[in-house]
Amino acid sequence: MPGRENLVRLLDGAAEAAVKNLFGLSRQQLTVLMSDFGQPAYRAGQLLDAMFRQRIASLEGVSTLPRGLRKVLLEEGWTIGRSRIVETFRSVDGTERYLVAGHDGQTVETVWMPGGDGAERGDDDAVDGEATRRATICVSSQVGCAVNCQFCLTAKLGLQRNLSAGEIAGQVIAVLERQAVQVGRDRINLVFMGMGEPFLNYDEFMAAVRLLVNEAGLAESRMTVSTSGIVPGILRLATEPVRPRLAISLNAPNDAIREAIMPITRKWKIDDVILAAGQLPLRPRERVTFEYVLLGGINDGLQHADELVALARKAPMPVKVNLIAWNPGPGIAYAMPAPEQVAAFQQRLIARGVPAFLRRPRGRDIYAACGQLKRTVSEIQPAISSQ
Ligand code: SAH
Ligand code: SF4
Fold first, then answer.
1. Higher pLDDT residue, 180 or 383?
2. Which of 115, 264, 313, 373 is most deeply buried (CB count within 10 A of its CB)?
3. pTM of the entire predicted model
4. Residue 166: CA count within 13 A, CB half-sphere
5. What's phi and psi for 106, nearest 5 deg?
Protein backbone atom coordinates (compact mmCIF):
# COMPACT_ATOMS: atom_id res chain seq x y z
CA MET A 1 0.00 0.00 0.00
CA PRO A 2 1.49 3.40 -0.95
CA GLY A 3 2.82 5.62 1.82
CA ARG A 4 2.04 3.11 4.49
CA GLU A 5 5.38 3.69 6.23
CA ASN A 6 4.20 7.18 7.17
CA LEU A 7 1.42 5.75 9.21
CA VAL A 8 3.56 3.13 10.84
CA ARG A 9 5.92 5.87 11.94
CA LEU A 10 3.07 7.94 13.31
CA LEU A 11 1.30 5.22 15.17
CA ASP A 12 2.54 3.73 18.35
CA GLY A 13 4.16 0.43 17.33
CA ALA A 14 2.24 -1.79 19.72
CA ALA A 15 -1.17 -0.39 18.88
CA GLU A 16 -0.50 -0.64 15.17
CA ALA A 17 0.65 -4.24 15.40
CA ALA A 18 -2.31 -5.41 17.43
CA VAL A 19 -5.33 -3.87 15.74
CA LYS A 20 -6.34 -1.50 13.01
CA ASN A 21 -8.78 0.59 14.98
CA LEU A 22 -9.86 3.92 13.58
CA PHE A 23 -11.34 4.97 16.91
CA GLY A 24 -8.63 6.61 18.99
CA LEU A 25 -6.56 7.94 16.09
CA SER A 26 -6.00 11.67 16.15
CA ARG A 27 -7.03 13.96 13.31
CA GLN A 28 -3.43 14.04 12.17
CA GLN A 29 -3.13 10.26 12.18
CA LEU A 30 -6.42 9.83 10.32
CA THR A 31 -5.35 12.40 7.74
CA VAL A 32 -2.16 10.42 7.06
CA LEU A 33 -4.17 7.22 6.84
CA MET A 34 -6.63 8.75 4.39
CA SER A 35 -3.81 10.04 2.22
CA ASP A 36 -2.36 6.51 2.24
CA PHE A 37 -5.65 5.49 0.64
CA GLY A 38 -5.41 8.37 -1.84
CA GLN A 39 -8.11 10.35 -0.06
CA PRO A 40 -8.34 14.09 0.72
CA ALA A 41 -7.82 15.34 4.28
CA TYR A 42 -11.50 16.11 4.83
CA ARG A 43 -12.21 12.38 4.96
CA ALA A 44 -10.51 12.40 8.36
CA GLY A 45 -13.01 15.00 9.51
CA GLN A 46 -15.90 12.92 8.20
CA LEU A 47 -14.64 9.90 10.08
CA LEU A 48 -14.19 11.84 13.31
CA ASP A 49 -17.65 13.34 12.99
CA ALA A 50 -19.14 9.88 12.44
CA MET A 51 -17.31 8.35 15.41
CA PHE A 52 -17.52 11.17 17.94
CA ARG A 53 -20.63 13.22 17.08
CA GLN A 54 -22.90 10.63 15.46
CA ARG A 55 -21.37 7.88 17.61
CA ILE A 56 -21.46 5.34 14.80
CA ALA A 57 -19.76 2.13 15.91
CA SER A 58 -19.29 0.32 12.60
CA LEU A 59 -17.57 1.41 9.43
CA GLU A 60 -20.45 0.13 7.29
CA GLY A 61 -22.66 2.75 8.94
CA VAL A 62 -20.50 5.74 7.98
CA SER A 63 -22.62 6.85 5.05
CA THR A 64 -20.63 10.05 4.50
CA LEU A 65 -17.69 7.99 3.22
CA PRO A 66 -17.83 6.64 -0.35
CA ARG A 67 -18.91 3.01 -0.42
CA GLY A 68 -15.73 2.03 -2.27
CA LEU A 69 -13.51 3.54 0.43
CA ARG A 70 -15.38 1.78 3.22
CA LYS A 71 -14.93 -1.48 1.34
CA VAL A 72 -11.18 -1.00 0.85
CA LEU A 73 -10.70 -0.02 4.49
CA LEU A 74 -12.54 -3.13 5.63
CA GLU A 75 -10.57 -5.30 3.23
CA GLU A 76 -7.36 -3.90 4.68
CA GLY A 77 -8.58 -4.92 8.13
CA TRP A 78 -9.61 -1.51 9.45
CA THR A 79 -12.59 -1.24 11.74
CA ILE A 80 -13.92 1.50 14.01
CA GLY A 81 -13.13 -0.75 16.95
CA ARG A 82 -14.77 1.32 19.67
CA SER A 83 -15.01 -0.21 23.14
CA ARG A 84 -18.33 -1.94 23.86
CA ILE A 85 -20.52 -2.00 26.93
CA VAL A 86 -20.84 -5.72 27.65
CA GLU A 87 -22.63 -5.62 30.97
CA THR A 88 -24.72 -3.10 32.87
CA PHE A 89 -25.57 -2.89 36.56
CA ARG A 90 -28.14 -0.40 37.80
CA SER A 91 -28.25 0.97 41.34
CA VAL A 92 -31.33 1.96 43.28
CA ASP A 93 -29.99 5.54 43.17
CA GLY A 94 -29.94 5.63 39.34
CA THR A 95 -26.20 5.12 39.03
CA GLU A 96 -25.19 2.66 36.33
CA ARG A 97 -21.96 0.70 36.29
CA TYR A 98 -20.76 -0.74 33.01
CA LEU A 99 -18.22 -3.33 32.11
CA VAL A 100 -16.61 -2.04 28.94
CA ALA A 101 -14.55 -4.36 26.76
CA GLY A 102 -11.52 -3.25 24.79
CA HIS A 103 -10.08 -4.92 21.72
CA ASP A 104 -8.63 -7.89 23.63
CA GLY A 105 -11.79 -8.54 25.59
CA GLN A 106 -10.30 -7.22 28.88
CA THR A 107 -12.90 -5.15 30.65
CA VAL A 108 -12.75 -1.96 32.66
CA GLU A 109 -15.45 -0.14 34.54
CA THR A 110 -17.22 3.05 33.66
CA VAL A 111 -19.89 4.67 35.84
CA TRP A 112 -22.81 6.92 34.91
CA MET A 113 -24.08 9.09 37.77
CA PRO A 114 -27.17 11.10 36.92
CA GLY A 115 -27.39 14.50 38.59
CA GLY A 116 -23.66 15.13 39.05
CA ASP A 117 -21.29 13.61 41.55
CA GLY A 118 -22.92 15.23 44.54
CA ALA A 119 -19.73 16.97 45.61
CA GLU A 120 -20.71 20.42 44.51
CA ARG A 121 -23.66 22.39 43.39
CA GLY A 122 -23.68 22.89 39.67
CA ASP A 123 -24.97 25.81 37.70
CA ASP A 124 -28.55 26.12 36.61
CA ASP A 125 -30.10 23.45 34.50
CA ALA A 126 -31.61 25.44 31.70
CA VAL A 127 -30.00 26.43 28.43
CA ASP A 128 -32.13 28.51 26.10
CA GLY A 129 -35.17 27.66 28.17
CA GLU A 130 -34.91 23.94 27.46
CA ALA A 131 -34.59 21.33 30.16
CA THR A 132 -31.12 19.83 30.37
CA ARG A 133 -29.83 16.74 32.04
CA ARG A 134 -26.86 16.70 34.37
CA ALA A 135 -24.67 13.69 34.86
CA THR A 136 -21.14 12.66 35.67
CA ILE A 137 -19.28 9.88 33.90
CA CYS A 138 -16.45 8.22 35.79
CA VAL A 139 -13.81 6.93 33.37
CA SER A 140 -11.03 4.34 33.76
CA SER A 141 -7.50 4.85 32.48
CA GLN A 142 -5.88 1.46 33.12
CA VAL A 143 -6.95 -2.15 33.61
CA GLY A 144 -6.22 -2.43 37.33
CA CYS A 145 -3.68 -0.18 39.02
CA ALA A 146 -0.05 -0.44 40.12
CA VAL A 147 -0.17 2.08 42.95
CA ASN A 148 -1.44 -0.27 45.64
CA CYS A 149 -3.30 2.08 47.96
CA GLN A 150 -4.28 -0.04 50.93
CA PHE A 151 -7.93 1.06 51.03
CA CYS A 152 -8.74 0.63 47.32
CA LEU A 153 -10.29 -2.41 45.70
CA THR A 154 -8.83 -1.64 42.26
CA ALA A 155 -5.37 -2.05 43.76
CA LYS A 156 -6.12 -5.74 44.36
CA LEU A 157 -6.06 -6.34 40.61
CA GLY A 158 -2.54 -5.06 40.21
CA LEU A 159 -1.78 -3.44 36.88
CA GLN A 160 -3.02 -5.60 34.02
CA ARG A 161 -2.32 -3.15 31.23
CA ASN A 162 -2.67 0.44 30.09
CA LEU A 163 -5.72 1.51 28.12
CA SER A 164 -5.20 3.13 24.74
CA ALA A 165 -6.52 6.62 23.98
CA GLY A 166 -9.30 4.99 21.99
CA GLU A 167 -10.27 2.74 24.87
CA ILE A 168 -10.37 5.69 27.28
CA ALA A 169 -12.39 7.96 24.98
CA GLY A 170 -14.45 4.98 23.82
CA GLN A 171 -15.89 4.45 27.31
CA VAL A 172 -17.28 7.98 27.21
CA ILE A 173 -18.73 7.77 23.71
CA ALA A 174 -20.33 4.39 24.44
CA VAL A 175 -22.02 5.81 27.54
CA LEU A 176 -23.10 9.02 25.79
CA GLU A 177 -24.70 6.85 23.13
CA ARG A 178 -26.41 4.58 25.62
CA GLN A 179 -27.81 7.54 27.52
CA ALA A 180 -28.74 9.45 24.34
CA VAL A 181 -26.88 12.50 25.65
CA GLN A 182 -27.11 15.70 23.66
CA VAL A 183 -23.67 17.25 23.91
CA GLY A 184 -23.95 21.02 24.13
CA ARG A 185 -27.35 20.82 25.79
CA ASP A 186 -26.88 18.30 28.59
CA ARG A 187 -24.35 19.12 31.30
CA ILE A 188 -21.94 16.25 31.35
CA ASN A 189 -18.99 16.14 33.74
CA LEU A 190 -16.19 13.68 33.19
CA VAL A 191 -14.09 12.47 36.08
CA PHE A 192 -11.03 10.38 35.32
CA MET A 193 -11.38 8.60 38.62
CA GLY A 194 -12.21 5.07 37.61
CA MET A 195 -9.76 2.20 37.56
CA GLY A 196 -6.12 3.12 37.24
CA GLU A 197 -3.72 5.99 37.74
CA PRO A 198 -4.13 8.34 34.75
CA PHE A 199 -0.66 9.86 35.17
CA LEU A 200 1.00 6.46 34.86
CA ASN A 201 -0.59 6.27 31.40
CA TYR A 202 -0.11 9.94 30.64
CA ASP A 203 0.18 10.07 26.85
CA GLU A 204 -2.82 7.87 26.11
CA PHE A 205 -4.86 9.63 28.78
CA MET A 206 -4.12 13.09 27.38
CA ALA A 207 -4.71 11.93 23.79
CA ALA A 208 -8.16 10.77 24.94
CA VAL A 209 -8.83 14.14 26.58
CA ARG A 210 -7.95 15.92 23.32
CA LEU A 211 -10.27 13.67 21.31
CA LEU A 212 -13.12 14.25 23.75
CA VAL A 213 -12.63 18.02 23.71
CA ASN A 214 -11.82 18.57 20.04
CA GLU A 215 -13.90 15.88 18.39
CA ALA A 216 -16.76 15.10 20.79
CA GLY A 217 -17.20 18.73 21.89
CA LEU A 218 -17.06 18.09 25.63
CA ALA A 219 -15.83 20.97 27.79
CA GLU A 220 -12.36 20.68 29.32
CA SER A 221 -13.58 22.75 32.26
CA ARG A 222 -16.09 20.00 33.06
CA MET A 223 -13.40 17.34 33.21
CA THR A 224 -11.39 16.42 36.29
CA VAL A 225 -8.42 14.11 36.49
CA SER A 226 -7.56 12.55 39.80
CA THR A 227 -4.05 11.45 40.65
CA SER A 228 -2.55 9.71 43.62
CA GLY A 229 0.25 12.28 43.38
CA ILE A 230 2.51 11.42 40.45
CA VAL A 231 4.65 14.58 40.43
CA PRO A 232 6.01 14.32 36.84
CA GLY A 233 2.45 13.90 35.58
CA ILE A 234 1.26 16.96 37.47
CA LEU A 235 4.14 19.00 36.05
CA ARG A 236 3.33 17.85 32.52
CA LEU A 237 -0.34 18.68 32.99
CA ALA A 238 0.71 22.22 33.93
CA THR A 239 2.13 22.67 30.42
CA GLU A 240 -0.96 21.46 28.52
CA PRO A 241 -2.92 24.06 26.56
CA VAL A 242 -6.05 21.89 26.86
CA ARG A 243 -6.41 20.09 30.16
CA PRO A 244 -8.90 18.88 32.74
CA ARG A 245 -9.06 20.25 36.26
CA LEU A 246 -6.76 18.60 38.76
CA ALA A 247 -7.71 16.60 41.83
CA ILE A 248 -5.09 15.14 44.13
CA SER A 249 -5.90 12.12 46.25
CA LEU A 250 -4.25 13.40 49.39
CA ASN A 251 -6.11 11.12 51.79
CA ALA A 252 -3.83 12.00 54.69
CA PRO A 253 -2.74 15.22 56.40
CA ASN A 254 0.91 14.20 56.82
CA ASP A 255 3.49 11.96 55.16
CA ALA A 256 3.51 9.39 57.97
CA ILE A 257 -0.18 8.50 57.63
CA ARG A 258 -0.03 8.88 53.88
CA GLU A 259 2.86 6.50 53.58
CA ALA A 260 1.03 3.89 55.63
CA ILE A 261 -2.00 3.94 53.33
CA MET A 262 -0.48 5.06 49.99
CA PRO A 263 2.95 3.61 49.17
CA ILE A 264 3.41 6.19 46.41
CA THR A 265 4.34 8.64 49.17
CA ARG A 266 7.71 6.96 49.52
CA LYS A 267 8.54 8.48 46.16
CA TRP A 268 6.74 11.82 46.31
CA LYS A 269 6.03 13.64 49.57
CA ILE A 270 2.93 15.74 50.17
CA ASP A 271 4.89 19.02 49.94
CA ASP A 272 6.35 18.06 46.55
CA VAL A 273 2.92 17.10 45.25
CA ILE A 274 1.34 20.38 46.37
CA LEU A 275 4.24 22.41 45.03
CA ALA A 276 3.90 20.71 41.64
CA ALA A 277 0.15 21.41 41.61
CA GLY A 278 0.99 25.05 42.24
CA GLN A 279 2.55 25.16 38.77
CA LEU A 280 -0.83 24.85 37.06
CA PRO A 281 -1.93 28.06 35.37
CA LEU A 282 -5.45 28.03 36.80
CA ARG A 283 -8.44 29.33 34.90
CA PRO A 284 -10.64 31.97 36.55
CA ARG A 285 -12.36 30.57 39.66
CA GLU A 286 -10.56 27.25 39.23
CA ARG A 287 -9.28 25.47 42.32
CA VAL A 288 -7.22 22.35 42.79
CA THR A 289 -9.16 19.67 44.65
CA PHE A 290 -7.74 17.70 47.54
CA GLU A 291 -9.58 14.41 47.75
CA TYR A 292 -9.62 12.92 51.17
CA VAL A 293 -10.94 9.43 51.88
CA LEU A 294 -12.00 9.27 55.52
CA LEU A 295 -10.88 6.01 57.08
CA GLY A 296 -12.44 5.35 60.47
CA GLY A 297 -9.89 5.84 63.27
CA ILE A 298 -6.99 6.45 60.87
CA ASN A 299 -7.26 9.95 59.40
CA ASP A 300 -10.68 11.22 60.50
CA GLY A 301 -9.82 13.01 63.75
CA LEU A 302 -10.20 16.75 64.27
CA GLN A 303 -6.43 17.04 64.73
CA HIS A 304 -6.14 15.60 61.19
CA ALA A 305 -8.64 18.17 59.95
CA ASP A 306 -6.47 20.90 61.48
CA GLU A 307 -3.36 19.54 59.79
CA LEU A 308 -5.26 19.49 56.52
CA VAL A 309 -6.28 23.12 57.04
CA ALA A 310 -2.60 23.98 57.48
CA LEU A 311 -1.74 22.24 54.21
CA ALA A 312 -4.53 24.06 52.38
CA ARG A 313 -3.41 27.41 53.79
CA LYS A 314 0.20 27.03 52.79
CA ALA A 315 -0.63 25.71 49.30
CA PRO A 316 0.51 28.15 46.61
CA MET A 317 -2.88 27.88 44.82
CA PRO A 318 -6.55 28.00 45.84
CA VAL A 319 -7.80 24.59 46.91
CA LYS A 320 -10.99 22.90 48.01
CA VAL A 321 -11.46 19.58 49.74
CA ASN A 322 -13.71 16.73 48.61
CA LEU A 323 -14.35 14.35 51.48
CA ILE A 324 -15.24 10.76 50.69
CA ALA A 325 -16.33 8.38 53.43
CA TRP A 326 -14.47 5.15 52.81
CA ASN A 327 -16.48 2.60 50.84
CA PRO A 328 -15.93 -0.94 52.07
CA GLY A 329 -14.70 -3.76 49.88
CA PRO A 330 -14.10 -7.46 50.40
CA GLY A 331 -10.73 -8.23 51.93
CA ILE A 332 -9.93 -4.66 52.97
CA ALA A 333 -9.54 -4.17 56.71
CA TYR A 334 -10.54 -0.56 57.23
CA ALA A 335 -13.55 0.85 59.02
CA MET A 336 -16.11 3.27 57.69
CA PRO A 337 -15.96 6.56 59.58
CA ALA A 338 -18.86 7.38 61.90
CA PRO A 339 -21.31 9.76 60.19
CA GLU A 340 -20.99 12.32 63.01
CA GLN A 341 -17.21 12.17 62.63
CA VAL A 342 -17.54 12.90 58.92
CA ALA A 343 -19.82 15.85 59.64
CA ALA A 344 -17.51 17.19 62.35
CA PHE A 345 -14.49 16.88 60.05
CA GLN A 346 -16.24 18.79 57.29
CA GLN A 347 -17.45 21.49 59.67
CA ARG A 348 -13.95 21.94 61.08
CA LEU A 349 -12.55 22.60 57.59
CA ILE A 350 -15.34 25.00 56.70
CA ALA A 351 -15.04 26.84 60.03
CA ARG A 352 -11.37 27.40 59.33
CA GLY A 353 -12.07 28.77 55.87
CA VAL A 354 -11.35 25.74 53.69
CA PRO A 355 -14.16 24.93 51.24
CA ALA A 356 -15.10 21.31 51.92
CA PHE A 357 -17.68 19.14 50.19
CA LEU A 358 -18.90 15.71 51.05
CA ARG A 359 -19.12 13.31 48.16
CA ARG A 360 -22.28 11.26 48.36
CA PRO A 361 -21.56 7.58 47.88
CA ARG A 362 -23.12 6.55 44.59
CA GLY A 363 -24.07 3.06 43.56
CA ARG A 364 -22.60 1.29 46.59
CA ASP A 365 -25.14 -1.52 46.13
CA ILE A 366 -23.65 -2.34 42.73
CA TYR A 367 -20.00 -1.77 43.67
CA ALA A 368 -19.86 1.42 41.64
CA ALA A 369 -18.71 3.80 44.38
CA CYS A 370 -15.18 5.24 44.66
CA GLY A 371 -12.56 2.57 45.18
CA GLN A 372 -14.99 -0.27 44.54
CA LEU A 373 -14.22 -0.80 40.89
CA LYS A 374 -12.81 -4.24 40.39
CA ARG A 375 -14.88 -5.81 37.65
CA THR A 376 -17.15 -7.15 40.33
CA VAL A 377 -19.39 -9.58 38.55
CA SER A 378 -19.60 -12.65 40.68
CA GLU A 379 -20.96 -11.04 43.84
CA ILE A 380 -24.06 -9.53 42.31
CA GLN A 381 -26.39 -10.27 39.45
CA PRO A 382 -26.53 -7.81 36.59
CA ALA A 383 -29.74 -5.83 36.56
CA ILE A 384 -29.68 -5.53 32.81
CA SER A 385 -27.46 -7.12 30.24
CA SER A 386 -26.77 -5.36 27.04
CA GLN A 387 -25.29 -6.46 23.73
N1 SAH B 1 -5.99 6.52 40.77
C2 SAH B 1 -6.52 7.82 40.86
C3 SAH B 1 -7.93 7.93 40.38
C4 SAH B 1 -8.87 6.80 40.74
S5 SAH B 1 -9.26 6.58 42.43
C6 SAH B 1 -6.42 8.34 42.28
O7 SAH B 1 -6.13 7.58 43.17
O8 SAH B 1 -6.61 9.53 42.46
C9 SAH B 1 -10.50 7.81 42.70
C10 SAH B 1 -10.67 8.24 44.15
O11 SAH B 1 -11.26 7.19 44.92
C12 SAH B 1 -9.35 8.58 44.82
O13 SAH B 1 -9.46 9.84 45.43
C14 SAH B 1 -9.21 7.49 45.86
O15 SAH B 1 -8.50 7.97 46.97
C16 SAH B 1 -10.64 7.15 46.18
N17 SAH B 1 -10.85 5.83 46.76
C18 SAH B 1 -10.15 4.71 46.52
N19 SAH B 1 -10.65 3.68 47.24
C20 SAH B 1 -11.70 4.17 47.94
C21 SAH B 1 -12.66 3.59 48.83
N22 SAH B 1 -12.62 2.29 49.12
N23 SAH B 1 -13.60 4.38 49.35
C24 SAH B 1 -13.67 5.69 49.01
N25 SAH B 1 -12.82 6.28 48.17
C26 SAH B 1 -11.83 5.53 47.63
FE1 SF4 C 1 -4.79 3.18 42.08
FE2 SF4 C 1 -6.23 5.35 42.73
FE3 SF4 C 1 -6.87 2.93 43.74
FE4 SF4 C 1 -4.65 4.18 44.56
S5 SF4 C 1 -6.79 4.88 44.84
S6 SF4 C 1 -4.82 2.01 43.97
S7 SF4 C 1 -3.97 5.17 42.68
S8 SF4 C 1 -6.96 3.53 41.60
1. 180
2. 373
3. 0.91
4. 28
5. -65, 140
